[in-house]
Design goal:
79% helix, 4 helices, 0% strand, single chain, mainly alpha
């Protein structure tokens, strides 16, 4: 029973990546609304965490459920 309750650390990492990417997207929209045009490259690259976290979470979930 303990093996079925055991959680992997992959899903929280994927959720954190998704949340950080979503925050970067919101920050970009807010900065554009205020009038900033030339945003730093790191902020634009941080938006890629959103789809990467989503894909990472889906793949981790599928692989975890396939092992059962």
């Amino acid at each position: 029973m303990a093996a079925s309750v055991r959680r992997s650390a992959i899903l929280p990492v994927a959720m954190a990546m998704f949340a950080l990417g979503l925050l970067a997207i919101i920050a970009i929209f807010a900065l554009f609304a205020v009038g900033y045009e030339n945003l730093p490259v790191w902020l634009n690259l941080a938006t890629l965490l959103c789809p990467a976290g989503f894909i990472y979470g889906v793949v981790a979930t599928v692989l975890r459920n396939r092992r059962r």
